[in-house]
């Protein structure tokens, strides 16, 4: 997953939390970057037709952007579940965040064969907790 995909995933999640466009400030907070960095990347994503950005309202994913964001979120969910359920890593969320940018689609698909992923993934992702809803239910949000 590349940086653009991480931004798309974050826009997707913030849109779900805010039930509307993802504000630049909220994206900057979630990504741990400056608002200027968010504006720059949102501009690039808009040029690629993945995001629509309205000044003072925020960013909204296009259909293509939403598809890429969903794929990126699914990869992240696979990582979380693998780290939590198979490897039993205590801080699986931090590890998943660090690994998501270096895991490619082939590795994610192979990890997916090992875990017990829900068929509705990634739509089941708990945006507010920033983790797989099933891990939240299992007490992984301690």
Automatic annotation (TrEMBL):
Domain HTH dtxR-type: 1-62
Keywords: DNA-binding, Transcription, Transcription regulation
Entries under InterPro entries matching the protein: DtxR_MntR_Metal-Reg, Fe_dep_repressor, HTH_DTXR, Iron_dep_repressor, WH-like_DNA-bd_sf, WH_DNA-bd_sf
GO molecular function: DNA binding; DNA-binding transcription factor activity; protein dimerization activity; transition metal ion binding
Gene3D superfamilies: Winged helix-like DNA-binding domain superfamily/Winged helix DNA-binding domain (1.10.10.10)
Pfam families in UniProt: Fe_dep_repr_C, Fe_dep_repress
Superkingdom, natural source: Archaea
Keyword Transcription tagged: yes
PROSITE patterns according to UniProt: HTH_DTXR
Entry keyword annotation includes Transcription: yes
Protein family: Belongs to the DtxR/MntR family.
Protein name as it appears in the record: Metal-dependent transcriptional regulator
Species name: Haladaptatus pallidirubidus
Taxonomic classification: Archaea, Methanobacteriati, Methanobacteriota, Stenosarchaea group, Halobacteria
């Amino acid at each position: 997953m590349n940086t653009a995909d991480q931004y798309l995933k974050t826009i997707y999640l913030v849109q779900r939390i805010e039930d509307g466009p993802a504000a630049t400030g909220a994206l900057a907070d979630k990504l741990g970057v400056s608002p200027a960095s968010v504006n720059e990347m949102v501009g690039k994503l808009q040029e690629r037709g993945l995001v629509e950005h309205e000044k003072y309202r925020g960013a909204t994913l296009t259909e293509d952007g939403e598809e890429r964001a969903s794929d990126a979120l699914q990869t992240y969910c696979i990582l979380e579940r693998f780290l939590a359920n198979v490897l039993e890593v205590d801080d699986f969320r931090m590890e998943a965040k660090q690994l998501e940018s270096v895991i490619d689609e082939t590795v994610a698909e192979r990890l997916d064969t090992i875990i017990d992923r829900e068929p509705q993934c990634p739509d089941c992702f708990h945006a507010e907790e920033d983790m797989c809803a099933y891990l939240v239910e299992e007490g992984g949000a301690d």
